[in-house]
């Protein structure tokens, strides 16, 4: 089991970091009292492998409970990775002022007083951490991307989950689309009596659509566009991407192009699933 304890300075970005772990499929808990960590670890071990990646935020918000963390870490029956987030004092102060929140240790004092108290309490855990990450110069998106870069193991597929959705314009554009491509200009098998009742999942329909003068050129440009955009979405911290491809009825051309794009992205090692929204409509 991969077990990560996420701790560090208030205002250093632990909430955003936890979001990154959620995107990577970790079972995540925020502000768990340290004394409950071994019990939760036991529950995970009893899950028969269904929970094999865990990330838990433990910090000074736990108040009196937080003092148990050192003892808990010393007695954990498994290897625990500690990720410690910190930032410059001026950055933390600015972040608290922007959010109009009080520092947990400075409810009636200046923010800097709370920061100094917190540094003293957390020093032992910073020294013990497997990784200390200074987030002073990170935007939210950059922090999310950095966490994913660090904790995505070599050989795993890219963290972005891609859904290619074929649809028919006559039934409306999917509202969860990130990109929409119109392929109604391609040859339409609907008007061929022998192909009308087949779909873009059938070889005969695919051959008909791909035989069009502009189809191969369009597909190449579509693949180039997607290749350009995917890293941009990853850099922005996006974890799910919906690429919608539409024709008139969502049965022939859009399904064909969706299948071709899926094949290409899978060859590139992407996590892709396909959803043919309207393929069974209009029968």
UniProtKB/TrEMBL annotation:
Binding site for GTP: 59-62
Residues the entry annotates as binding ATP: 8-15
Keywords: ATP-binding, GTP-binding, Nucleotide-binding
Pfam families reported in the protein's UniProt record: PapZ_C, RapZ-like_N
SUPFAM superfamilies with a match to the protein in the record: P-loop containing nucleoside triphosphate hydrolases (SSF52540)
Superkingdom field: Bacteria
Sequence ranges assigned to domain RapZ-like N-terminal in this UniProt record: 1-153
Domain RapZ C-terminal: 161-279
Gene3D superfamilies: P-loop containing nucleotide triphosphate hydrolases
Record InterPro entries: P-loop_NTPase (IPR027417), RapZ-like (IPR005337), RapZ-like_N (IPR053930), RapZ_C (IPR053931)
GO molecular function, one term: ATP binding
Coiled-coil segments on the chain, per record: none
PANTHER family assigned to the protein according to its UniProt record, in alphabetical order: RNASE ADAPTER PROTEIN RAPZ
NCBIfam families the UniProt entry points to: PRK05416.1
Name the UniProt record assigns to this protein: RNase adapter RapZ
């Amino acid at each position: 089991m991969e077990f990560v304890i996420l701790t560090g300075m208030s205002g250093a970005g632990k909430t955003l970091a936890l979001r990154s772990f959620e995107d990577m499929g970790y079972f995540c808990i925020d502000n768990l009292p340290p004394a409950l960590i071994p019990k939760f670890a036991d529950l995970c071990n009893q899950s028969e492998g269904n929970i094999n990646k865990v990330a838990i935020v433990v910090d000074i918000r736990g108040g009196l409970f937080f003092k148990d963390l050192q003892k808990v870490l010393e007695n954990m029956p498994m290897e625990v990775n500690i990720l410690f987030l910190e930032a410059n004092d001026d950055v933390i102060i600015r972040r608290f002022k922007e959010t109009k929140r009080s520092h947990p240790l400075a409810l009636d004092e200046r923010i800097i007083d709370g920061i100094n108290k917190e540094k003293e309490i957390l020093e032992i855990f910073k020294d013990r951490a497997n990784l200390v990450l200074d987030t002073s110069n990170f935007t939210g998106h950059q922090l999310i991307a950095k966490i994913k870069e660090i904790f995505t193991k070599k050989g795993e597929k890219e963290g972005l989950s891609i859904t290619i959705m074929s649809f028919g314009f006559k039934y409306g554009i999917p509202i969860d689309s990130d990109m929409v491509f119109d392929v109604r200009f391609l040859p339409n098998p609907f008007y061929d009596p022998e192909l009308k009742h087949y779909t873009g999942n059938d070889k005969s329909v695919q051959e008909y659509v791909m035989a069009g003068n502009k189809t191969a050129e369009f597909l190449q440009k579509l693949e180039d566009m997607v290749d350009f955009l995917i890293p941009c979405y990853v850099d922005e911290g996006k974890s799910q991407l919906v690429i919608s491809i539409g024709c008139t009825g969502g049965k022939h051309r859009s399904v064909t192009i969706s299948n071709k794009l899926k094949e290409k992205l899978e060859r590139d090692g992407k996590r892709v699933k396909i959803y043919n929204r309207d393929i069974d409509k209009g029968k």
